[in-house]
Amino acid sequence: MAGRRYTPRTQAPTRTTVRGGAPAIPGPATPPLPATESTRTYTPPSPLHLGLTLGPLRRGPADPTFRATSDGTLWRTSRTPEGPATLRLTATTATGTVRADAWGPGAPWFLDRLPTLLGEGDDPATFAPRHRLLAESARRRPGLRLTSTGLVLESLIPSILEQKVTTDEAYRAYRLLLHKFGEPAPGPAGGQELRMRIPPDPYTWTRIPSWEWHKAGVDNKRASTIIRAAQVARRLEEAAAMEPAAARARLELVPGIGPWTSAETIQRTNGAPDEVTTGDLHLPGIVGYALAGNRDATDDDMLELLVPYEGQRHRAARLILLSGVSPPRRHPKMRKVNIANW
Fold first, then answer.
1. CA atoms within 13 Å, Cβ hemisphere of 231
2. pLDDT in tens, the chain (342 residues)
3. Does domain 39-122 correspond to CATH entry 3.30.310.20?
4. Is 137 helix (H, G, I), strand (E, B) or coil?
5. Whole-structure pTM value
């Protein structure tokens, strides 16, 4: 029986300039998009900057789960509770409205959580800067919101990979593992232009052979921690619905996950404005230098300086990092040690 021919609609890409936020990748602005019913729009109640808000989810410029094209469009992939999904976000400058297109089995879940992902539950108005640098940094970035993904494992595993190594090494390991053990993203993002990937499911993380961890430059301690976390993934995912302190405690029950890793994770999954990172090699010195001229500040010094921002300490630290103010380097960079070469 003959049927009507279906011709998918396409949307011609536009070319504008990205200002701030995640860096753009080279090449055409946006690939042609097939018609899709998985579309939603969201108009935030106050200014919103997509790049600043979602930037912490990007693990390096070549992260296969995050792309920013030259027209300001952001692409993101996730393994949601309903399955893999790709999300495409475009903001209209005139109205501030964000259009979201989604593909894959997890598309409805992604779209239902769109306002939360874009920081609807975050209230930057409660932040009262008491230092000129913070006031200026906040004034220049009115569109900064703290995202809340509601997905724990996808932020926890990259944070574990970043333990005790340079960020470049961690980004490389994450990229290699996803290209090897992930799957192509649903929709146009999985094509040759963007080559985006979906992170492996928990079972696949537990089945990665030891030599593949080694080839990615991941030592046995970090690999074992990821495997332990993946084995209890269901329990860890429950942390996204908890209060931040309880969520961190849940994560830290897994051997190998400490305060640094739990804070870096919960900041992204729960949108926690007060969960400041401790145990970081550079952050105490940056905060100490910015607020008190103390480049040798310890975690205790940093926490004391952030006391006036109780309840908003993570936001304060984020604004300091975005200001670009940091102490002059006195020591050489941390040495890169790629165990894959051993």
1. 12
2. 444 333 333 333 333 333 334 444 343 344 444 445 599 999 999 899 999 999 999 999 999 999 999 888 999 999 999 999 999 999 987 788 999 999 999 999 999 999 999 999 999 999 999 999 999 999 999 999 999 999 999 999 999 999 999 999 999 999 999 999 999 999 999 988 899 999 999 999 999 999 999 999 999 999 999 999 999 999 999 999 999 999 999 999 999 999 999 999 999 999 999 999 999 999 999 999 999 999 999 999 999 999 999 999 999 999 999 999 999 876 666 666 666 666
3. yes
4. helix
5. 0.86
